[in-house]
Amino acid sequence: MKNVGRSVIWKDRELFKKHIQEYRKEYRKTRILKMKLEVLLHYSNNLLKCAKCGYSENMKALCIDHINAGDNMERTKIGNEYSFYLWLIRNNYPEGYQVLCANCNQIKAYEEKGIKNNCQKSKIDNVTPGLLRKYAPCYKI
């Protein structure tokens, strides 16, 4: 029997730990994507597209949105994306959600925020063309 040095054993153990961590990370990514696909398909009636504009090119740009924006308390209590999809599946896809693309979701949030703030003009609405040219030259006026 050969005498194996301790450093070799520890190196193998560290490599094994690293391998397991990478495997778990990939498994979790795959699991989240599968759950996201399942949830998106359910809430979009198997069409996998935005409820407002019809965008359907990339699943990564689609997300779940509360139809009643004030109702998002469970989302904040549940936590991350994985937990939220799992919660939706385990609760048999509760009513009150829709599929929106990231753009429509942001527009909806902006509009709702404007309504809550008595439709006050935001700072971006007060930006002058000269200021835009200076700080955002790629922005077309």
Give the structure's gist in a few sentences.
Helices cover 54% and strands 7% of the residues. It has 141 residues and is mainly alpha-helical.
Q: What keyword list fits this structure?
A:
mainly alpha, two-stranded antiparallel ribbon, 2 strands, 141 residues
Over the alpha carbons, how many angstroms does the gyration radius reach?
Answer: 23 Å
Cα distance, first to last residue? Answer: 78 Å
Instruction: Name the overall outline.
Output: extended
Mean of all residue-level pLDDT scores: 80
Bin the strand percentage: 5-15%
- State the helix count: 5
Q: What is the domain total for the residues?
A: 1
Number of beta-strand segments: 2
Outline the low-pLDDT stretches. Answer: 118-122
Strand order of the largest sheet: 1-2
Helix coverage percent: 40-55%
**Helix/strand/pairing category:** mainly alpha
The largest β sheet comes out as:
2 strands, antiparallel
SSE series: HEHHEHH
Describe this structure in words.
By secondary structure, the protein is mostly helical. The protein has a two-stranded antiparallel sheet. Helix 1 (6-43) packs across helix 3. The protein starts with 5 loop residues before the first helix and ends in a 6-residue tail after the last helix. It has helices spanning 6-43, 73-78, 81-90, 102-116, 129-135, and strands at 62-66, 97-101. It has 5 helices and 2 strands, in the order H-E-H-H-E-H-H. It has one domain (6-135).
